[in-house]
């Protein structure tokens, strides 16, 4: 099948590289044809030869792409609208950590368990280990104290490459309960498969507003882009992450704000010495003060990803405008060198210094479902640090809801947008 990528401007080599995977084997074997023609969604629903349910998914992050994948796989005609490039924001800069039971005891418990298992199924289906770095791994809680010059010799459960001033370590996850993916490659792999196997399309453009047919009891009928293009649809899914609140119809119901998180990616000189252990640190700075909680994820690509240093900041209009704070990056580099001599300056090359915004809600619970009083208009946002984990189950359940009007794979009632309307009436 010939892949179609619709863009408002010619697809440059840079944009093409953004869409293709840089991993060990190519994810797209066929050539991508860049078309400047109007996508098939430009015709009103119910016209033309294609009688399939037409859905516009706004947002090319993991939540939007997972939703598009399952919609397209189940027969819908899907167009994904993305302002910049697929997985350009948090979905391309996250850690990719997966946990079976870390959300137990809260509203995310069932969704997370379902999604963890669905990640495994998708890996079997899409050759996850070689396509996007899926692998089970052990996970440790490790305490690091900068004020100690040498590592303690009696610390148990510590991988040999963690040779900094560790004070204690304990297992908090096994290969049965924790795993990882390379999040950017995972998201782009699903998008590629949705395009190549199931005929989905990608439109590069910014969502300006959602249109409704007042003659049909206010049912959604289109998405309008900022350049004037109109994409007609039977249903619309808003999966815009922290940019959700940029749309008035969302911000009028609930708030989605961005938690800015920083990360660096390192390439150690001897990557084979870095075993697959995810580290959740309690990190004590030498100057005292509150401990920090950075996270360290070795990847099967040979890279090591380190994240932390979060703060609440205003989300810019364009994802490409997100830049890291130099002081936060400096601290993460310092953390890297104190975790392992293999990760210190001179022994590892820093290949990325980055930041992203995690979409968060006031009650700390994602928002997934049909917007009250807006038939056919669905939202999926607010997953915070668990977006990569919960992407598959969110996408699969939302696809069911859009197509069939009900869900079987996961109960979405705890995440209903209606909870904000009910709260405002009290």
TrEMBL record:
GO MF term list: oxidoreductase activity
All residue ranges annotated as the FAD dependent oxidoreductase domain in the record: 54-401
Keywords: Oxidoreductase
The UniProt record lists the keyword Oxidoreductase: yes
Pfam families: DAO
Gene3D superfamilies in alphabetical order: D-Amino Acid Oxidase, subunit A, domain 2, FAD/NAD(P)-binding domain
Record's keyword annotation contains Oxidoreductase: yes
InterPro entries, sorted: FAD-dep_OxRdtase (IPR006076), FAD/NAD-bd_sf (IPR036188)
Superkingdom per UniProt: Eukaryota
GO cellular component, one term: cytoplasm
Protein name: FAD dependent oxidoreductase domain-containing protein
The species this protein was found in: Chenopodium quinoa (Quinoa)
Underlying gene: LOC110682357
């Amino acid at each position: 099948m010939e892949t179609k990528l619709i863009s408002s401007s010619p697809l440059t080599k840079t944009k093409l590289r953004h869409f293709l995977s840089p991993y060990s084997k190519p994810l797209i074997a066929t050539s991508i044809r860049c078309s400047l023609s109007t996508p098939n969604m430009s015709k009103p629903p119910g016209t033309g030869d294609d009688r399939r349910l037409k859905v516009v998914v706004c947002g090319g992050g993991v939540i939007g792409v997972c939703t598009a994948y399952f919609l397209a796989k189940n027969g819908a005609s899907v167009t994904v609208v993305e302002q910049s490039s697929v997985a350009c924001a948090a979905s391309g800069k996250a850690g990719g950590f997966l946990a079976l039971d870390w959300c137990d005891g809260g509203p995310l418990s069932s969704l997370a368990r379902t999604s963890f298992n669905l990640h495994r199924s998708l890996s079997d289906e899409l050759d996850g280990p070689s396509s996007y770095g899926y692998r089970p791994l052990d996970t440790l809680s490790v305490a690091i104290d900068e004020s100690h010059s040498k590592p303690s010799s009696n610390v148990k459960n510590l991988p040999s490459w963690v040779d900094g001033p560790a004070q204690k370590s304990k297992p908090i996850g096994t290969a049965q309960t924790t795993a990882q993916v390379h999040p950017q490659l995972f998201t782009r792999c699903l998008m590629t498969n949705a395009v190549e196997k199931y005929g989905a399309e990608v439109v590069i453009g910014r969502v300006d507003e959602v249109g409704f047919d007042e003659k049909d009891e206010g049912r959604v009928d289109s998405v309008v882009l900022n350049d004037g293009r109109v994409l007609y649809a039977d249903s619309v899914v808003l999966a815009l992450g922290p940019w959700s609140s940029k749309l008035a119809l969302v911000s009028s119901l609930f708030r989605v704000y961005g938690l800015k998180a920083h990360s660096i990616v390192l390439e150690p000189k001897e990557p084979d010495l870095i075993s697959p252990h995810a580290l959740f640190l309690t990190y004590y700075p030498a100057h005292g003060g509150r401990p920090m909680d950075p996270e360290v994820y070795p990847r099967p690509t040979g890279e090591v990803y380190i994240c932390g240093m979060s703060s609440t900041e205003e989300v810019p209009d364009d994802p490409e405008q997100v830049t890291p704070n130099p002081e936060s990056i400096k601290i993460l580099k310092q953390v890297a060198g104190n975790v392992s001599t293999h990760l210190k300056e001179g022994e590892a090359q820093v290949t990325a210094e980055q930041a992203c915004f995690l979409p968060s809600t006031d009650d700390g619970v994602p928002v997934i479902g049909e917007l009250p009083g807006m038939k056919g208009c669905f939202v999926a946002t607010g997953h915070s640090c668990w977006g990569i984990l919960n992407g598959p189950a969110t996408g699969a359940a939302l696809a069911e809801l859009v197509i069939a009007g009900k869900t079987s794979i996961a109960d979405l009632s705890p995440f209903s947008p209606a909870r904000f309307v009910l709260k405002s009436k009290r």
